Structure prediction request, 215 residues.
Amino acid sequence: MNESAKLSITKRERSSKGVMNQLRQDGFLPGSIDVKGQDAVSFSIRRDEFRKALHANGISSVYMLELEDTTYPAMIREIQYAPVTKDWLHVTFQFVSLTEETTAEIPFEIVGRDEVIYKGYELQQQLETLLVRGLPTAFPSSIVVEVAEMEPGAQVTVADLKLPEGITSETEDDRLIVAVSYARIAEEETADEDEAEAEEGTEEATEEATEESAE
Prediction:
């Protein structure tokens, strides 16, 4: 377990909207831990500490939430945002057992996207995350998909992935993740050229027909 995945949290009682807003103004993020068969545990955490941990470990990692003399292994279930500013309002964790398999949505990390675009091709991504099953401690922060060497017509499906040991996909093997094609601009230019040639041919045929009629 990475040290960056350990977070110190402070227990809080269920609070009014005014108290929650004050917490946020003081640099804290309200949160809760859902525990099956028990009442949710309400807490607050330093917003900057949570941001650092999230940046270092990703949204699909297991976090060790340390509250006084109790440690809760948990995964992020939801982060609520303000509708306009997109500031964090609340984070909900789900308690997990480190010895029981569970499922999680793991985001894809597309490596080489700029190279594909530089070559004048278009990269189409159909899946943003992959549903997997395994022990929580085995979940990667992301699943890397290399696309730099891909050419138009090439694609990557779920069946093409090499997942970490102990992790299995719960997503259908034939689901498309990414595909490379020629840029649409080029296709549109070709279509325009074909249309212009067709119009030109029509005009020529009309002129010939007119000339023959005149004769």
Observations:
- The chain has two domains: 3-96, 103-186.
- The two ends are 92 Å apart (CA to CA).
- The mean pLDDT is 88.
- Helices lie at 17-25, 47-57, 113-118, 184-214.
